[in-house]
Amino acid sequence: MDPKLVKRSLELSLKNLQLSYVDLYLVHLHIPLVYDGDDTNVSPKNEAGNWNAADKWDLLGTWKAMEELVDQGLTNSIGVSNFSISQVERICKVAKHKPVTNQMESHIFLPQTDLFEACKKHRVTITEYSPLGSPGRPAEIKKADDPVVLEDPVIVKLTKIYGKTPAQSPKDEVKAAVRAALDADYRHIDTAYNYMNEDAIGEVLQEYIKSGKVKREELFIVTKLPMIHMDPKLVKRSLELSLKNLQLSYVDLYLVHFPIPLVYEGDDTNVFPQNEAGGWRAADKWDLIGTWKAMEELVDLGLTKCIGVSNFSISQVERICEVAKHKPVTNQVECHIYLPQKDLFEACKKHGITITAYSPFGSPGRPAFIKQASDPVVLEDPVILKIAKKYGKTPAQVVLRNLIQRGMIVIPKSTNPERIRSNFQVFDFSLSKEDMEEIDKIKTRLRYFDSMGVMFKDHPERPW
User: Fold this and answer.
1) Looking at the DSSP assignment, which residues form a beta bridge with residue 125?
2) What do you get for the CA distance between the two ends of the chain, in Å?
3) Which is nearest to 43 in space by CA: 134, 136, 144, 138?
4) How far apart are CA 99 and CA 59, in angstroms?
5) CATH fold label, 184-454
6) CATH assignment of 3-151?
7) What is the tens place of the pLDDT at every residue in 322-367?
8) What number of CA atoms fall less than 13 Å from residue 189's CA on the CB side?
């Protein structure tokens, strides 16, 4: 960190990396250690066995030497690591090239809120290291009673809701998936307030709209009214929250997510309030028709182009159609080879209502708590495997093609870019009449999301 050594140090790193420049060069820690002429002794110790700090230090001098590296093209940008608020501010007061980031330990037990806000004022980002709490850190700095980030009860609970591991970031995964989908020419994006990912989707939509990669009118954006906002007085406000998250002035389709309202406790983030038994807590009062009338007002106000329902039974759809000013355009339901929804499809068809099939693959990524080891797997069904081999297609492509030929809208879910692209390649072949009939004869019957109905065993609006 002696200013006279800074350039030479980066040149050593560039030689090791076999590069002519780096994209970002950081001051690793704000305290210089003694340099004894040995470039391999990176942590010199004193007699007590601790790191041996240098007698003299000049943090601003070190920073000025860092700035010279930018001017010489040895690095594109510079930053700091493990710096305090005051240290960042001291540098920013005199900097020709401000730090672009401050790399810090940060995780749920050390959120670095004050540091983040202070750096943000200077347009200095925070780069998090040890976001998982560094479970592999050296034994000498571990304590037996240290809390474990990946075992925190809140994190464990959320992993069950999203069907993810404690380490995964659902929002980053969503952004990557939406980009991959748009690049593969998908234009129908389905989300819901309950998924808590509308903001991530909104960021990508704006990124693509502003760059001119896609026009808003080319997109078909669907989101859903959460169960906690089904009180008619809350419906408009709920869509406005979704529109703010999505960074849009309207959606193309707005659905009632489920026919049973949950208690609203004033917390818009508590989308699945629980009862003492650990199940979802249903509201004491419900008014499905009142909710629908509030949905219709959203069409009249131009906040959505059209409205529909999700997970509704035949009788519920028919009750709405009897009084509707704007009929549901679709009923989004679980539908696949083991749950073909024939009766519901025919009943909706009479009213000019389409079926949108979710979980067409049987939701292999569904949460662990609703999985059974004995559950049959849609994409491993012998009939599907045989037909896939015949056409030189994947089982997923055959399953999607089957539903499309039945006259359904299909919304396959994937966060894998290659599968996203593959799922779109279903328009260059057709299944024969014999293939369609063979799939229709599959005897297995299973609703993978049966627990949603079971949870409301005695509720009058239970859809199944």
Assistant:
1) 101
2) 68
3) 138
4) 13
5) TIM Barrel (3.20.20)
6) 3.20.20.100
7) 999 999 999 999 999 999 999 999 999 999 999 999 999 999 888 7
8) 27
Which two structure tokens, joined as six digits, stand for 152?
């925190």
Specify whether 195 is catalytic.
yes
What are the extents of the domains in the chain?
3-151, 184-454
Question: CA 443 → CA 175, 220, 463, distances in Å?
Answer: 38, 35, 23
pLDDT at 173: 81
- Listed in sequence order, the residues at least 6 apart from 218 whose beta carbon sits closer than 8 Å to its beta carbon are 187
Least confident range of 89-103, 157-171, 373-387: 157-171
Q: Which one from 193, 195, 254, 338 is the annotated catalytic residue? A: 195
User: Tens of pLDDT along 261-286?
Assistant: 999 999 999 999 988 877 889 999 99
With 70 as the cut, is the pLDDT of residue 170 above it? Answer: no
Please name the residue that has the structure tokens 């990524």. Answer: 365
- pLDDT bracket for residue 462 (50, 70, 90): very high
Beta strand pairing call for 125-129 and 188-190? unpaired
